[in-house]
Amino acid sequence: MSEPVLRLVGISKRFPGVLANDNVDFELAPGEIHALLGENGAGKTTLMNVVYGLYKQDEGQIFIDGRQVEIHDPNDALARGIGMVHQHFMLVPVMTVTENMMLGHETTRGLRLGLLSDLDPDRVAEEIKALGDKHGLSIDPEAYVRDLSVGEEQRVEIVKALYRGAEVLILDEPTAVLTPQEAEDLFSIMRSLIAEGKSIIFITHKLKEVLVIADRITVLRDGRVVGTTEPSKTTEAELAAMMVGREVILQVEKGPAAPGEAVLEVQDLQVRDLREQMAIRGVSFTVRAGEIFGIAGVQGNGQAELVEALTGLTPVEGGHIFMNGQETTHLRPRAITETGIAHVPEDRHKHGLVLVYPLDENLVLQTYYLPPFAKRTFLQPKEVRENAIRLIQEFDVRTPSVRTHAGSLSGGNQQKVIVARELSRDIRLLIANQPTRGLDVGSIEFIHRRIVEKRDEGVGVLLVSSELDEILGLSDRIAVMYAGEILAVMPAEEATKERLGLLMAGVREAPDSIAAD
Amino acid sequence: MDSVFFSGLFFLALVKATPIAFGAMAGLMSERSGVINIAIEGMMLTGAMMAFLGSVIFNDLTGGTLPKIYSLLAGLIVAMISAALVALLHAVFSIHYKVDQIISGTVINLLSVGVTNFVANAYIDPRGLAGVGVFPVINIPILSEIPLIGRIFFSHQPLVYLMLIMVAVLQYALFKTPWGLRTRAVGEHPRAADTVGINVNRRRYINVTLGGALAGIGGAFLVLESVGRFQKLMTTGRGFIALAALIFGKWTSVGALGSALLFGFAEALGVRLQLGDVNELQALALLAGIGIIVLAGAWAVLKLIRRGADQRRNRTIGILASAGLASIAAALLFDWPSVEIPIQFLGLMPYIATVLVLAGFVGRAIPPAAIGKPYEKA
């Protein structure tokens, strides 16, 4: 193998109380896609932030093209051809694409007045247009970033790195925010960049993606390198075990469902979205006790509105919703919750938790006004605390204390807090929207197991997910949503990835092949 | 009611708007980079006192041998430096020590009041220091001879011109230069700026401090171009009005100048009312008319910048402009009955007008996204 473009030797990085990287060695060969795989908190992003100059390593050396370099800040990294696309995009929303490209590295015209020279956005716009066309990344240089979709923003970030002369591209969890189709697009972009001679470090915790796209895979766990391998020499299960440190059951174990009476009945539901457009156009389905009803679909096809309408967060335009035999169409969220509904919302930061509240208070968000947590009008801190201690143990939430703010926990632990709160109540229906998005393998396994347990206890589960594997692995019956309608409902045994994929793309099936509901 | 009255009114409005516009530009530099600045008042007050002391002491030291203008310039420079130092204090508090920026600003305002009052009581008053005078009026050749316009715009003391130039320079710099791009990025999304190699805190330090120098000019104006000597608490809240002008002007210097003019106009009308050559209802009609025309103008400019071609809006702008003109014409043509309206009510008008303007027409004023938040690297 030729000289590596990037070599890290013995990198260690300490934060107060944590050893984020422990003597890490890493190599990136020219023209390869090297995946950096690991659970959340394994130190992947920290390592790459060291390479990109956002952090300074405590120990270890960085070699670029065989020469040892010191990288003090992102300018050093960019000057040496290292570009990074961060998980949370680093684009200024109120500026245009062109302005974002120029930022920190401005092209000017006319008099040379240093920082007070005249910017030359037209020339930059031409350059990035040409650059985008060359790599098959179409972007509109004059668009404002705030108007772009997530996928477009990501393309802008990639072009930004290329515009700054990146030869080594670090992509931090690039697929976490993408739909399956957008992820496919990204992979083909990555392949074409490799063909151009660039090298890519691909940070992820998604096993399937790694096997599809990477040339080599390095697995990090607790800040240490567990090993480096190649996709042809390994399997998903092996990688998962390397990441987590033990055998992981990727396929959820579950017996056949024993469906009972209907716990959720939706009849001809119609809902408008925030822009007053019809988001749900006459949807009907039934979820029975003791079954998991999965709704597949590309994000943005009405799933969010459906869940919000069911839980009372969005007004219903037309149709009826019955929960446990009682009509709940126009009830307020609390009244709906009190009929025995649990809701694991899509956005755990915005809707699932109060990030600035401690854990124990987050764990009684729907029950704080009821005994034993409240007596008359007074909160009972002791009860609240004991409830939290019990749930944290039962649901294996890793936290320094019950008074720790929810916002300071990792994503997996935050989601466990929500699941603990929702599942610990006396419920008959669980509505889970993207319950494992952005989580690591260990947390996903845990949450999936809990959902199946609830089903076996006779709870009806409505699972909404854009992860096909999750839908296929958990559901007993599967519906596909497209453009605000349910195109088909089928038993899980009849569902294949290909069939669901076509439906998700909006291709309707011939009437005789639709399974009876 | 004639053109002399009219041009006098506008002339005075521009003069009264000058310190407010300088203050607003100080706020602009600071807040666009993400640091809330409610200490403009304190910086202006310090600037005013130091302008006075600087010019008087310079004059004493040189024994009055140099022309007066040198002492005045010395006063101006001392004012800029001292107000910049006050701003630097605010920067150190809010950037280095991450003190709540509102609290830091309040502390600095209180401190400035205390220090200037103390110096006035202990040094200026006992010695009976007299001022050196004020900057002379500079008539711009040719331009100042244009009827009406010449009197309003081209026959001022130098700091008024400087203010107009600075407004234009800042507007350009903020949107068309690397400095402006970086400043806005640091105020909107500091982490993004950091990842492209911009030193967020250094940018903020520089902007807050340079902004302080502008506030210093605003304070110096009160001494060097208006009163000629220092009086305790002579800024009388102009720093806060500057802040309001900044917000009403949507964090742009041209917008801030527009709002400052509205405030200045109200102040000028108040002066005229006291002189007795305009009555209250007339003043009200005038103010309303001017306000509406300023609004229509601002709107039209905005539309031109954004190249919008919404016909309905164009008609609205037209209607607004004619309504404004009609209101002014009515104020000038009719003999208005004399009605007693408290002067303070007139003072209220620009605020009411701007609130209506913002609520109804121009849209919400959205502050820089990262304003008030100290930047944490990790």
Q: Care to describe what's here?
A:
Chain A has 517 residues and is α/β, with parallel strands linked by helices. Chain A has two domains: 6-244, P-loop containing nucleotide triphosphate hydrolases (Rossmann fold); 262-340 and 426-513, Rossmann fold. Chain A has 17 helices and 24 strands. Chain A starts with 5 loop residues before the first strand and ends in a 13-residue tail after the last helix. The model of chain A has no long low-confidence stretch (mean pLDDT 89). Chain B is mainly alpha-helical and 378 residues long. Chain B has a domain at 3-252: ABC transporter involved in vitamin B12 uptake, BtuC. Chain B is 74% helix and 1% strand. Chain B is built from 14 helices and two strands. Chain B has helices at 3-32, 40-61, 68-96, 101-127, 149-153, 158-176, 178-188, 190-195, 200-227, 238-248, 253-275, 280-306, 311-333, 343-362, and strands at residues 138-139, 155-156. In chain B, helix 2 packs across helix 9 (200-227). The longest helix of chain B has 30 residues, at 3-32. The mean pLDDT of chain B is 87. At the A-B interface, helix 2, helix 3 and strand 8 of A face helix 7 and helix 8 of B.
Give a quick summary of the entry.
The complex is a heterodimer of chains A (517) and B (378). Chain A has 517 residues and is an alpha/beta fold.
Average residue pLDDT of chain A? 89
Number of strands of chain A: 24
Q: What Rg of chain B, in angstroms, do the CA atoms define?
A: 21 Å
Helical region count of chain A? 17
- Biggest β-sheet strands, sense, barrel of chain B: 2 strands, antiparallel
Order of strands in the sheet with most strands of chain A: 6-9-10-3-11-12
- Globular, elongated, flat, extended or rod-shaped: what is the shape of chain A? globular
How many helices of chain B? The count is 14
